[in-house]
Amino acid sequence: MVAPNSLGRYKLTAQIARGGMSDVFEAQDRLLDRKVAVKILHERYAETDTFVARFRKEARAVANLSHPNIVSVYDWGEEDGTYFMVMELVRGRSLSDIIQTEGRLLPRRATEIAAEIAKALDAAHHSGVIHRDIKPGNVLLTTDGSVKVTDFGVARARNASEGLTKVGSVIGTATYFSPEQASGDPADERSDIYSLGVVLYEMLVGRPPFRGESAVSVAYQHVTAEVVPPSRLNTDVSLELENVVMRALDKDPDRRYETAADFHHDLLVLLAGRPSPAAPAPVASSGRAGPAEDLPPPPPRADEAYRRLRGQPRQPSQLPFILTAILLAAGVVLGAYLLLNSLSNEPAPSTTVPVVTIAIPDVTGLSEEEARIVLQEAGFLVTTSREASEAPEDSVIRTEPAEGTVAEEESPVNVVVSDGPALLHVPTVVGSTRERAIGQLEGQGFAYTVRTARHDTIGVGLVISQDPEGEARAQVGSAVELVISAGPEPIEMPRVIGLSRDRAEGMLEGLGLEVSTTLARNNEVPPGVVARQEPAPGADVNPGWSVQLVISEGPERFILEELAGQPVADVIVLLGEAGMQVQVIEESSSSHEVGVVIRTDPPGGTELPVGEMVTVYESTGPDLVEIPDLTGATPEEAEATLAALGLLLEVANSRAAVDVPELEGRIARQAPGPGEEFMRGETVLVVLGDYTAPVLDSEGDDPES
């Protein structure tokens, strides 16, 4: 589309970007004398009501948003069939450009950018607008370092009922789809949170969590495949930051952050260096984030946290009764001591209560709960930790300090619980090639088994699924079952040789095959008809495979050059090598030597299909005959005689005087003369005799005699 020079009050000065639906230009607002950005809908979409409605919807949706992290929309309109939107002009680069040219970002910078995007989403969501296409290309970083979200082209109102985005449609960019978008299910604010999680992951790792050969395969992974934790690809990513990323990327929307404000809050916690945000598990929503200082309270004590997670009621402590008994006994002893001391007038002793010490009981082999009860009733504060061990899982291995150690009452004792035999996280290999998946498993100490299965969307040789799933814990050396795609069910390649190009392409594309064509001359197949195909008819092919068709351009063409004067033998070789048929006819010629071409039929310069017949006339030299003596013959007799010799007769208009009466009206002279050689086909000129009787005198004598 050729953009106009101006749209109303906006003068276009330079093109900034080109997109799938629209182009963006820098422009001068002549009314307010300021630089703006003008987005112009492509001409082919301007003729479609649906796209115009979506364009108008974007303008209305964003025009109602006012936030420093959202690109502002000032105006929109239509002029001569051109639909345009006027926006804030942002000087800077897109986040996608930065990642593509510079690679992954430092974790802190990535966290700062994600926090700004979350603020923008929070503002949009509070205005009832869901973006639905959050990706690096729609995030701009200005020259002063601020972050702005743009392109609400596929956004929709939370309760929109218009027919632009129906349930079951898939709108957005596959790499940043939420699982519900990929499944065609309705998407709410939590879909934007998932997409922002993908963007944060890409900033930390340098690539998105899922990649594939097609948008379908990427979308499928969003629904089924597990995300490789970012710390395994970038060791600079902290566990706390990884927990935030993985919670945002949870496939179950109910387990993600409930609001963008919650997401923003936990990112601020990380930036402030405060206690770690919650791991990616469902927690109560914190509501809209307040100031950065309004952070969550410190985590509960370990024993209290344990009870909350396990739902264990707090056990009645025996400690108050023990302390009461000790204090009473101490009081009695102290009173008696003071009484005796007063009687003996000795100095009073110290009134400090002695420290109570207790030996740590042996809880080895008990369950964690049993050990906790025993130690708490003995008066200790209990914490727990876990480590791999050959001891039964969930049984106590030891205490720290060890059993029998004398410790003060209410001092901490850590209970070390068995995690069972050493387990490793199974690597996520879904979507990888067979070879790469096996290499990952073997490299981390796992065995493997393989089976194949047909799949309509996952390419041949890629991992469809694994058991155990990625990130599950399994013993070293245990086997992981891999299901490898054998591609979709094959179909039989139809025969399209002899069909027209359009019909053949339609048939093959209807089977899901990709068709490419080349043109070639063919002497046997009419133009525009399939002459060859690859794969051959009857072969097994899969949807998506490429089929090569050779389309006939008709017979090969040969331009016959001028061959007169060339040796016939050479001409026969020349025409034969060109695939032409040759017919030779001998013909006498007085102008051509024996054995050379006199002429051809068709003549030189003619374009012929290869294989056509060319007649070559070969010179046999001049054809000479001896001229007979025609004297005394009538013209008719002479003509017959000459015709038999291949000659022609011409009678002169004048006559020759003769003195013999018998030559009157007969041939008296001829040229050429008798006995001369003359070329067949030529003309012999004859002169007829004209006899006049002599005049006699009176005696009857000739006067001249």
Quick one: how many beta strands?
A: 36
How far is the N terminus from the C terminus? Answer: 116 Å
Q: Name the poorly predicted regions.
A: 157-171, 279-354
Roughly what is the average pLDDT, rounded to an integer? 82
What is the C-alpha radius of gyration, as a whole number of Å? 53 Å
Structure description:
The chain is an alpha+beta fold and 705 residues long. Helix content is 26%, strand content 26%. It contains 16 helices and 36 strands. The strands form 13 sheets. It has a six-stranded antiparallel beta sheet. Strands 7-9-10 form a three-stranded antiparallel beta sheet. α4 (107-126) packs antiparallel against α9 (260-272) and α6 packs antiparallel against α8 (239-248). The longest helix is centred in the middle third of the chain and has 25 residues, at 319-343. The relative contact order is 0.04. Mean pLDDT is 82; it is low at 157-171 and 279-354.
Features:
alpha+beta, three-stranded antiparallel beta sheet, 16 helices, elongated
Sum this structure up briefly.
The protein is of the alpha+beta class. The strands form 13 sheets. It has a six-stranded antiparallel β-sheet with strand order 1-2-3-4-6-5.
Topology:
Blueprint: E1 6-7, E2 10-18, E3 22-29, E4 34-41, H1 43-46, H2 49-63, E5 73-79, E6 82-87, E7 92-94, H3 95-102, H4 107-126, E8 129-130, E9 139-142, E10 147-149, E11 156-157, H5 179-182, H6 189-205, H7 215-224, H8 239-248, H9 260-272, H10 302-310, H11 319-343, E12 357-359, H12 368-378, E13 381-387, E14 396-400, E15 406-408, E16 412-418, E17 423-425, H13 434-443, E18 447-453, E19 463-467, E20 473-475, E21 479-485, E22 491-492, H14 501-510, E23 514-520, E24 530-534, E25 540-541, E26 546-552, E27 557-559, H15 568-577, E28 581-587, E29 597-601, E30 607-609, E31 613-619, E32 624-626, H16 635-644, E33 648-658, E34 667-671, E35 677-679, E36 683-691
Parallel strand pairs: 13-16, 18-21, 23-26, 28-31, 33-36
Antiparallel strand pairs: 1-2, 2-3, 3-4, 4-6, 5-6, 7-9, 8-11, 9-10, 12-15, 14-16, 17-20, 19-21, 22-25, 24-26, 27-30, 29-31, 32-35, 34-36
